[in-house]
Design brief:
By secondary structure, the protein is mainly alpha-helical. The protein contains three helices and no strands. It has one domain. The protein is elongated.
Length: 62
């Protein structure tokens, strides 16, 4: 934590963190928003959307 606060972290470590954040956000948006899409005239219920976002967050954290 002291390296991050003092700014002695390094360029590659910062790039790795940025790339990991980008990938995590992309997964969350793709899975979360993908679960809100309906098909064949049927839209998902609120429970399905909620569970989908919850599972997407669990996948990103894991």
């Amino acid at each position: 934590l002291s390296k991050i606060v003092n700014g002695n972290d390094g360029v590659w470590s910062s790039c790795h963190r940025g790339i990991a954040e980008l990938i995590g956000t992309a997964i969350l948006v793709m899975l979360g928003c993908g679960g809100c899409l309906g098909g064949l005239g049927v839209s998902p219920s609120h429970l399905q959307i909620t569970l989908n976002f919850g599972l997407a967050v669990m996948i990103v954290i894991q």
